[in-house]
């Protein structure tokens, strides 16, 4: 207001709120579309990352085989890959889910693998002295010890899932907040674009806190629950 900046360049908070209320139904619909993509991409990253991390930590040969492939998948820019995925998979939601998965799963794999590999040797030797099988060692020693690292990876992955979903929606979508931002700025509806940006920020914060609460409820003994940063 002081510098008389045009609303189409930088709308005031009151303008953003007014535009949000006027288009509340549309914003809600696009928010649900983005949430669906985020949830499916994040779920895919969890389902694939956990067993992949177990394979990586099972032997040095497996680690040397899988790690280069993981690095290769991360060296490809997702914005450049998204149009190719549209050609391969079609103009549906699947390419968006795949892009979201590719953005989110790498830090989760690394976090889980690091947690599984950081078990103290004396705990491993204790399990062996009781003739624990490989499965028992994994479920009773390695996984419980890796819980803080696993949830650290989940917190990063769930926030990156929001980023991945929006990147995918920029390339191929007919719904979602990323698509809504593109269409709003094309018609100089900057207030709506800022509203979508704020919703995306709040979405990332809420999803992050959901993972924090899940860790507290499911694993109250986790050392991370005493960390003030996680509170």
From TrEMBL:
Keyword Transport set for record: yes
Subcellular location as annotated: Cell membrane
Annotated keywords: Cell membrane, Membrane, Transmembrane, Transmembrane helix, Transport
Organism of origin: Acuticoccus sediminis
Organism ancestry: Bacteria, Pseudomonadati, Pseudomonadota, Alphaproteobacteria, Hyphomicrobiales
Domain of life: Bacteria
GO cellular component: plasma membrane
Annotated InterPro entries: MetI-like, MetI-like_sf
Transmembrane segments annotated in the record for this chain: 38-57, 69-91, 97-124, 145-171, 191-214
Family of the protein in this entry: Belongs to the binding-protein-dependent transport system permease family.
Main location per the UniProt record: membrane
Protein name as annotated: ABC transporter permease
Membrane topology: Multi-pass membrane protein
PROSITE patterns listed in its UniProt record: ABC_TM1
UniProt-listed PANTHER family: ABC TRANSPORTER PERMEASE PROTEIN HI_0355-RELATED (PTHR30151:SF20), ALKANE SULFONATE ABC TRANSPORTER-RELATED, MEMBRANE SUBUNIT (PTHR30151)
GO biological process: transmembrane transport
Domain ABC transmembrane type-1 residues, every copy: 31-211
């Amino acid at each position: 207001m002081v510098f008389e900046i045009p609303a189409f360049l930088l709308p005031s908070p009151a303008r953003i709120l007014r535009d949000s209320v006027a288009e509340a139904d549309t914003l809600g619909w696009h928010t649900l579309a983005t949430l669906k993509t985020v949830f499916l991409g994040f779920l895919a990253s969890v389902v694939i990352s956990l067993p992949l991390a177990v394979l990586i930590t099972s032997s040095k040969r497996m680690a040397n085989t899988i790690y280069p492939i993981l690095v290769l998948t991360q060296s490809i820019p997702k914005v450049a890959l998204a149009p190719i995925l549209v050609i391969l998979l079609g103009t549906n939601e699947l390419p968006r889910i795949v892009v979201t998965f590719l953005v989110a799963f790498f830090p989760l794999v690394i976090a889980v693998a690091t947690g599984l590999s950081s078990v103290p040797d004396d705990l491993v030797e204790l399990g062996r002295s009781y003739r624990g099988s490989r499965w028992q060692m994994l479920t009773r020693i390695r996984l419980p010890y890796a819980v803080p690292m696993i949830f650290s990876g989940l917190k990063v992955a769930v926030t990156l899932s929001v980023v991945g979903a929006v990147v995918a929606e920029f390339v191929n979508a007919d719904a979602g907040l990323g698509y809504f931002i593109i269409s709003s700025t094309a018609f100089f509806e900057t207030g709506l674009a800022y509203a979508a940006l704020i919703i995306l920020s709040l979405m990332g914060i809420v999803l992050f806190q959901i993972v924090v609460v899940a860790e507290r409820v499911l694993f109250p003994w986790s050392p991370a629950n005493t960390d003030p940063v996680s509170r």
